[in-house]
Amino acid sequence: MTDKSNPYQVPTTGHVWDDNLAELVNPPPKWWMIGLHASWLLVVLYGVFYPMWPSLGGYTKGILGWTQVGEYKQDLKAIEAVRAKYEERLVTADAAGILGDQELRDYTVKSAKVLFGDNCAACHGGGGQGGPNYPVLADDDWLYGGDINTIQASITNGRMGMMPAKAGVELSEAEIDQLANAIAQGQPASTPLFMEKGCFACHGMDGKGMQALGSANLTDGIWRFSGTVEGIKYTITHGVNDPSDPESRNAVMPTFGNTKLSETDLKKLAVYVHQLGGGK
Ligand code: HEC
Ligand code: HEC
Asked: 150 is in which domain, residue-wise?
């Protein structure tokens, strides 16, 4: 008959109480004990090599002298060493030169992303997608020009396109209406008013704009302000950046040449914007 209180016949300590109450000898398996001892040993060893225990006025430093700050500084040094190689070349290269050098250009585009985010994204959007009243930089349609030097000039010197309210001439409501409708259809030159009222002087005979003035192309369906008839009428009536009309549309690109941005930063941004715009 098997002993119901000890079916596996585990050895007992030999002590018996109350006739048949015995204590079994059941040690944990060996692998488990090894694990237990290894783990406390590891804790002690860790404390020997690495900073660990709080002590009076500080902490135990460990014999390796490792610190988190030290590791961070070392990593930073390694990164800066890689950067320095490019940054030195950027000082002497001009923006066009950077564009022509694939390696330098890749580095520049990556490192300018943060500059763009900090200085430009508030108006032009994180990806250069523009916003109400702020031009898109991520297309190949330019007010002032998309070649690298013009872009750099736009950033360094700022821009402020100027169109006088009612183009500075006599314009009746009906004439404004007629001009706005022609422009909304992308055909500004289809009304003789475009010539008669002098719009062509800034927007060109064909209405495609002049980059020297930053006068918008009125034929391409890309709108700086608004493409609705109402919106276009507003632009014609109040102009752009016309100080004599308090309701004039506002379009000021700040000057960055006199800010904390360095020459190198300005070059980097020009290259960055150039590649956003699909420039080659
Ligand atoms: C305060 C808003 C604002 C900020 C900040 C700003 N811009 Fe602009 N940017 C404008 C406006 C508005 C225009 C259009 C000016 C005009 O219509 O005459 C413009 C025009 C431009 C143009 C000319 C676009 C074209 O079609 O020719 C470039 C290039 C440009 N910005 C790049 C930048 C870069 C790079 C930065 C950051 C360093 C920046 N901008 C920061 C508002 C801003
Ligand atoms: C003195 C130069 C000048 C004259 C004259 C002028 N414009 Fe403009 N116009 C501009 C400039 C510059 C801009 C672009 C402003 C900007 O984006 O910063 C502009 C923008 C516009 C826009 C806005 C386009 C858009 O994409 O939202 C319309 C519409 C327009 N002009 C219509 C006219 C009409 C119609 C006339 C004639 C009655 C006229 N302009 C005469 C300089 C001029």
From this structure: 69-159+255-276
Number of domains forming the structure of the chain: 3
Q: Which atom of ligand 2 is nearest to the CA of 171?
A: 38
Ligand 2 center from residue 215 Cα (angstroms) = 6
User: Residues 16-43: pLDDT tens digits?
Assistant: 899 888 888 888 999 999 999 999 999 9
- Which residue's CA is minimally distant from atom 36 of ligand 2? 199
Q: What is the CATH number of the domain that holds 100?
A: 1.10.760.10
Please indicate, yes or no, if residue 6 is contained in any of the structural domains.
Answer: no
Q: Which ligand is nearest to the CA of 120?
A: 1
Q: Whose CA is nearest to atom 2 of ligand 1?
A: 123
CA 104 to chain centre: 19
**Considering the domain boundaries, does residue 31 fall inside one?**
yes
- Clarify whether residues 92 and 130 are in a common domain: yes
- The model's pTM is 0.80
Confidence of residue 248 (pLDDT cuts 50, 70, 90): very high
